[in-house]
Amino acid sequence: MSKETDELTATEVTSSASSSTNFDPTVVDGTSVIRNQTRNRTSSGRSDFPIIVHCHLRWDFVWQRPQQIFSRLADNHRILFIEDPEIADGEPHLAIDEVQPNIVRLIPKVPQALAINADKDAEIFLPLIRKALREHPLLAGHFDDPVQWFYSPMSAPGYLGQFGGHGLVYDCMDELASFRFAPPDIADRERFVMSKADVVFTGGFQLFESKSKHHSNVHFYGCGVDVEHYGKARLEETEVPASVASLPKPVFGYFGVIDERLDYELVAALADRFPEASVVMAGPFAKVDRAELPDRPNIHWLGQQKYSDLPALVKGFDVCLMPFALNEATKYINPTKTLEYMAGGKPVVSTAIADVVRNFTPIVQVARSPEEFVDAVERAWRSPDAGLIAEGIERASAATWDATVASMRRNIQEAVFDTAPASAIAH
């Protein structure tokens, strides 16, 4: 729950400011390694620098990489988590609240008529955010000299360097240019933000190989997992929710975003092959029309689930599914749920996602055709491999988010506050 909620409106800002960054993609050479050498640096590292995050994902959406990272960085840093604008009635304004200690969320609210593009958003909201940083009780005095951290490059030209500070982090968790409805200039904007970044993180090894060609300080940090949380799926006292416990067995289950990255024909084929089984698809819909998804009596679309309820959900699965389509949107993904399923002590079956094949076989059974996938699910259900499940639990236990975040934090301190150069590293 948020600690405090407040709003700041455009009429409270007396000057009509516009973004000082006019984005011109032609100034960036995307084929070369470029690092910003003009930023003022200090040779003495800082351990408590504030962080301003620009994220296209909602804090209250699916609990994933950004939430895992910043809920831990908040132990040592003040975090301002700026989401993409939301459509709202009235004049432009900011909704500001504290979602957990040391993490303040800021949501720009804009009327439909003014929701034009990312540059217009920055023109509208930059003066409002600056005023909030000066005057809002949750922000004033807490975000001097911040490090800026971008997830989507779309907002970077309008906000980069606009709050003072020492450094810039780009955390590339997906190849957003390959996603459905991606803005046509997103690749140009990514080249821009990478040209200014002090350090680049990637969520997948394929992404690491791609981005390392264009920046000299790239670090691969793949999936982490909260083992204590997902390990509750292995506890006797954890109660499977009625939405799953009441279903016919076996239960083949997936949790995560329901979007264009999934292979819905594969989901339907699994349901058709085992009409006595239940196929559970738990998660929010994004960029897909529910009416166009498979409609079978034994496919159960459960909608978005609370993060706290996921271990109990997994406990009810006989086999955990990763039925991803093999397309441009999935070429670079490294699904966080892989280790989460493994921590829950369940057999896992996936399509041949490159990072899954590289990082998690043979613990995860990988199928390269619909027939192989269905057969692998049946084997995992009828004859689960206790040795592989135990190996998965051990592997998950060694891949904690705590260790990942501690290493990221060191990378930032070295890149932003020290003068020694770093190089591309796969952790």
Automatic annotation (TrEMBL):
Keyword Nuclease attached: no
Region (Disordered): 1-29
Membrane as UniProt keyword: no
Gene Ontology molecular function: glycosyltransferase activity
Pfam family, one: Glyco_trans_1_4
Start-end of Low complexity biased regions: 10-21
Alphabetized UniProt keyword annotations: Glycosyltransferase, Transferase
EC number(s) given by UniProt: 2.4.-.-
Protein name stated in the entry: Glycosyltransferase
Protein's organism: Lysobacter korlensis
Biological classification of the source: Bacteria, Pseudomonadati, Pseudomonadota, Gammaproteobacteria, Lysobacterales
